[in-house]
Amino acid sequence: MGDTGTTHGVKVDSPLVIRLEHVSKTYKSSTRPALDNVSVDMDKGEFVFLIGPSGSGKSTFLRLLLREEVPSKGRVYVSNFDVAKMARRRVPRLRQSIGCVFQDFRLLATKTVAENVAFALEVIGKPRHTIRKVVPEVLQLVGLDGKADRMPNELSGGEQQRVAIARAFVNRPLVLIADEPTGNLDPDTSQDIMLLLERINRTGTTVVMATHDHSIVDSMRRRVVELSLGKVVRDDARGVYGVGR
Amino acid sequence: MRASFVFSEVITGLRRNITMTIAMILTTAISLGLLGGGLLIVRTIGKMQANFLSALQVEVNLDDAVSAGDPNCTQSICAGLRADLTNYPGVVSVQFQNRNQTFAKAKAEFSNDPEMEQLVRPEAFPASLLVSLQNPTQSGVISAAFASKAGVRDVDDQGVFVQKLTDLLNGVRNATFLIALIQALAALMLISNTIQVSAFTRRTEVGIMRLVGATRWYTQLPFLLEAVVAGVVGAVLAVGGLVVAKVAFLDNIFGSVFSSTIIPKIGLLDIASVSPWLLLAAVGISALTGYVTLRLYVRL
Q1: Is the Cα dihedral B233, B238, B239, B240 positive or negative?
Q2: CB contact under 8 A, A122 and B1
Q3: Among residues A109, B32, B33, B217, which is most buried (max CB within 10 A)?
Q4: Does pLDDT of A6 surpass 70?
């Protein structure tokens, strides 16, 4: 990756979407690296759980993909972006091909559901007729049709997370990054959100989800990458959260 | 980039932070108003010098004996002085004016003051040699060279008066510019602070914008435009303030000073010609301050 291909679409001859090569990240304030010589490949359409205790490096991993951080050593590729080396002015293009969902939803309280989703398209300069067309579509996809004009504070936590997912997905990203998306939700609602993420995954979007939720990881039986003290200690194609945890 | 979106962001930003916005606009307006006032004084000085210095003459007044005894400047003292002055470097022309001519001129000047007109007598006025110079500001040289010559009573240098007036206006101008500068510093810091507060109150929006891949311009332009809009409003207020100050203050209170035509009147046209500079200064300063603030102090 990175050396071939011209658009930010995935190349036909390689299904790779994410590649970390011997990546280490050390923060100035700490002597121990947050990530220590991590090498991971993820294919197009994969659903990957990133697990590990707090401080194991999950967040750093995700931040490197978004180029919120640059690695101290090694290389990071997302699609055909050489993430660590790319010019700053190209970073917006990278982020337009990655959708993000967080534990705290991060919705704009002053905008309606539809406006929140439209916001993501407005700020990357999409024309208005496109926005008018795709926003209702994606709201239907996440099961929020009929709630377009509600304000976020009128919605349940699960519904708010659906809005966030709609916003992350509305630009049809290659990769969806979810950082503890069920962290604030009850088990039933969490299950609904997981079904939604699975649906999005089936459209060919690679989903990378950091989580602490045992039951979700165990029930989904998807790929599990476990981090501990910044190292990859496990990478199972169809894993569970872990024995005896 | 969608202009309507950026525009609505700017309006929201300005309204959310309304007290700071008003403070920013007022400070900018006062600063620009003072700058405008200073520029108007500069124009006035220029006009005044153009009007007066070109017409300015040095009057070499002759003493009583010459004034009384030589009405046509034919005798040796007067004729000698005239010849010396004519040959003096930088002198364009020398014109003789005898006692009666001086008296007639004075009488005409006092025509609206009958008491004075009654009092003046031709004997009180000297005959004069009126000297026009190539460079009117060098009138002091004539004064130095001829004041003590035989037959000369004194040298009346109008340039000294105009110079004094120019110095006074220059002083007022400098003071105005100084206050404008201090006020501009305050405006600068307010603009910078407003942008920082604005960026802080909107950090969630900006965070989301960055996350979904908005370009740096898209995230920062609303803040920059907020500053520029406030600057432009400030400039408009400043121009309005100058017009009000001219009509209410200069025309009403100092009208008589201007009607004497020594200091040229400040017209609406003068204000109109200064306004574009104020607008330019407002846009330039606010945009620059905004840009520097966003680069140095705001992590977007």
Answers
A1: positive
A2: no
A3: B32
A4: no
Distance, CA of B88 to CA of B144 (rounded, Å): 12
Name the residue ranges covered by the structural domains of chain B: 3-52+163-296, 64-150
Tell me if B169 sits within 8 A of B125, measured CB to CB.
no
Please tell me the least confidently modeled range out of A31-40, A106-115, A162-171, B180-189. B180-189
Best residue in A97, A100, A123, A134 for a mutation probing chain B (most B CBs within 10 Å): A123
Distance from CA of A234 to the nearest CA of B (A): 29
Contact B145, B88 (CB under 8 A): yes
Q: Please report residues of A whose CB lies closer than 8 A to that of B216.
A: 89, 92
0.80 surpassed by pTM: no
ipTM at complex level: 0.81
d(CA B218, CA A125): 9
Show the tokens assigned to B55. Answer: 């017409």
Query: Tell me, what's the pLDDT at A169?
Result: 96
Fold adopted by B64-150: Alpha-Beta Plaits (3.30.70)
Three-state DSSP class for A20?
Answer: strand
pLDDT score at B261: 58
Which of B204, B211, B216 is closest, CB to CB, to A108?
A: B204
pLDDT tens by residue, B92-138: 888 888 888 888 887 777 777 777 777 777 788 888 888 888 877 77
pLDDT for residue B70: 84
B2 touches chain A (CB under 8 A): yes
Check CB contact of B15 with chain A, cutoff 8 Å.
no
- Which of A159-173, A188-202, B76-90 shows the lowest per-residue confidence on average (mean pLDDT)? B76-90
Residues of A in contact with B214 (CB under 8 A): 92, 123-124
Closest-CA residue of chain A to B3: A125
Strand pairing of A231-236 and A223-228?
antiparallel
Residues 203-222 of B with CB under 8 A from A: 204-205, 207-216, 218-219
Determine contact, residues B28/B279, Cβ cutoff 8 Å.
no
φ, ψ at B32 (rounded to 5°): -70, -35
pLDDT in tens, B33-61: 999 988 888 888 888 777 776 677 888 88
Distance from the A241 Cα atom to the nearest Cα atom in chain B, whole angstroms: 29
